[in-house]
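Re: export button greyed out
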Amino acid sequence: MSSGNGLADLAGRILQAARARGATAAECVLRESRELSATVRLGEIENLKEAGGRGLGIRVFIGHRAASTFTSDFSWPAVERMLDSASAIARVASEDPFAGLPDASELGQAEGDLGIYSPEVAAVTAEQAVEVARRCEAAALAVDPRLTNSEGGTFEAATSRKLFANSLDFVGEYRRSSCSLAAVPIAAADGEMQRDYWFSRAHAPADLDAPEEVGRIAAQRALRRLGARKIPTARVPVVFDAPVAGSLLDHIFQAVNGDSVYRGTSFLANRLGELVAHPAVTVVDDGLRWGGFGTTPFDGEGVRRRKTVVLRQGVLESYLLNSYTARKLGLRTTGNAVRGLAASPGVGVGNLFLEPGDQSPERILAGISQGLLVTEFIGMGVNLVTGDYSRGACGLWIENGELAYPVEEITVAGNLKDMLRNIAAIGNDLVFRGAVAAPTVLVEGLTVAGR
Amino acid sequence: MVDDARRFFFDRYNLSPSGLQNFLNVAMERGGDYADLYFEYRSSSSLLLEESLLKSAQQGISVGVGIRVLSGERSGYAYTDDLTPEKIIQAARTAAQIASGPARTHIVGLHASVSARPSLYPVALAPTDAEINAKLDLLRRADHAARAFDARIQQVRVGYADEVRRVLIATSDGALAADVQPLVRLSVFCLARDGALSQRGASGGGGRASLEFFQQTLTPETIGREAAREAIVQLHARECPAGEMPVVLGPGWPGVLLHEAVGHGLEADFNRKKTSAFSGLVGQRVASDLCTVVDDGTLPGRRGSLNMDDEGAPTQCTVLIEKGILRGYMEDRLSSELTAAARTGNGRRESYAHLPMPRMTNTYMLAGSDDPQDIVRSVSRGLYAANFGGGQVDITNGKFVFSASESYLIEDGKITAPVRGATLIGNGPDVLTRVSRVGSDLRLDQGIGTCGKEGQWVPVGVGIPTIKIDRLTVGGTAQ
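Workaround output, generated via the alternate export path:
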């Protein structure tokens, strides 16, 4: 990896060279990353991968015309070729009065430690990674003799360094690290096989759950699926187990994402200030949450990250925006720009979560005479234009407040507009396992299709 | 073209057969059964037309080499995007960590493999080298056709993407193979509005071809109109029924059923590890005798086609299910070696940064003899699914889903009202046993599929004639 100021110097040179080619504004992002991963299956190493990569992306504006280019080659002739093609294609792009860098007053970055980088991650050796993966899988397989096979235990560690600069004199840089640990055991009985998984993720190795704990939970999750049945089609209360309840927030995010709002492709477009969900629902995006998996000091355009209340007691209070979508909607950016190397900025979450309620998941289940606890969804059957929702699912049938037996090969269907209003209970079990998190959620009025 | 690809890497990165041999020697200095080098130079561009404006235009290049060492069931992997000899040797040493002890094979001299068959995707002008204005013209034509289709079309988004992948593969068993792989795709998204009702429609197409594809095979106008038509049809769709019922799949893209229900389950890695619901079923009945399913990487110009797979093996047409009987799996090098099966040219990877694994190419069911209209007439009450979004499968328990984007009720043998999109769910090892009619109208999709597995995305194709499944669970809301 290049040393200290190498990236900043290169960025400065790129912006200068862009201006020399007639760009009226420009930005660039430079990234270096390293990864290490080990998978152990049935006690033997299956894969060991260790590598590093880098890339740079450039966006130039000629007035209100924009173009982007990217390359993994940091040599100056390669960078110059990218600048040449960026300015050539920008001249072909359409004049879009809303296109441009963010307003200079929006630029800025959070100071101080955000809890997103640990140097310990880069120090993990291949031997340690293999050992942790091995312990995790072994713990899973030791739980019960019905755990006869496995897709393995995996440990992954990654670090990255990102520098972003634009022609409004913004220069920002941060490092991030992450490591994760997972087990995917397979339980078998009477000719039936069921796989499930569990994982732990953290910025520092020391903050991961113990491999034995991760393995044990994965094993229990696989075992509880054995003996799954198909159930008759019915309209019943559906409980979204906390690890899958985050998918509801993914849909909410897609619906308040500035891109779908200005395009009119969201069922929440033009609804600001309206009650769109049950009054118990408050959804917050916090891009600066300490140690959050979506935390960064600035967004993909160099805009200060912040905390935005999206839904307050069921009322749609804010969309999530970058500077382009904000200008299209006549609003201010919420610091939610995300930018890969390759493209113009999109909109992404910081740390998006549903505020927890006061009931334990057990208490929520206790109040249901007949219903479904969903533990996994498959498929993408959501139409954000209409809110229509239909997804494959498996989980556990609830009878008289207790988990009765596993169910599979069923679908859960409704419409997100109704589902948000019909949230009848929210659990107190909010845990962040990613940038999007939710506690257990009970939704009424959904159709479960089976036999 | 193959020679061009080899010369491209040799000239630009100062590589030579002896240099490659040296990298392989380093990769195997701690032992192992096999090593390979996968050099990739990928050039790509994309354009987005929205509100009839060219809002986003991009171009880029990614270059790197992935180095793999196999030792028994173990894979060691490392990659670098810096193609200097020092960095490649460093990556080779990293990949070598997996092995210990003396090498079980000795490295044989590299010899360039010469393919007997002509390229499946010769192009005079690579799409990435075409004039940007020629690409923009395609976007404008699709945009115009979609808007002209119906006054209720309010929003049109047209995306274009192309790439050319140059690949050079050197292996410790002496193979030196190269390929140039073009790919283009045009896709249209439409939003229709009628009063308070809104709906979406989408269509697209492409292949391993130059821009001429959109003059000769599939015009931008066809794609634009098709997306608009789907959005308009869906505007007044009713609630979809829920529960088990007969389902008729239309020809073409609904072949995604095969991809999810049986395709993934027949990838050799899952079967070698016995984690697939299809493990150990070779020779047994997994479909009705009307069903013959193949995976064919050799169809000229198709999105899922390849001259060679990403391990340098020639692609082929592999019979997966023959008249209902499971015949075999899709193999990569590792699985075929470990199970003594023949390689099928299905070892694929997303890029140099990824390990290859068994993946589909173009997966489809052969045509039967039924008249498609007769098939619909045979259903008194059921669902006709004309188009799909995507799907997913749980390999281990065999449960799969795929989501309809355009479907209709069948009432008394006739296709009647459109219904809202719904997810269909079934069980891979038995869904095809319920296929009671297979149409004569085999159609392949237009070239839009991208398949994800363990975080790696690769372009694929699917195809199917009209078929009737006697019973499948439909995830609607109407009871």
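DSSP finds eleven helices and 23 strands in chain B. The button fix ships in the next patch.
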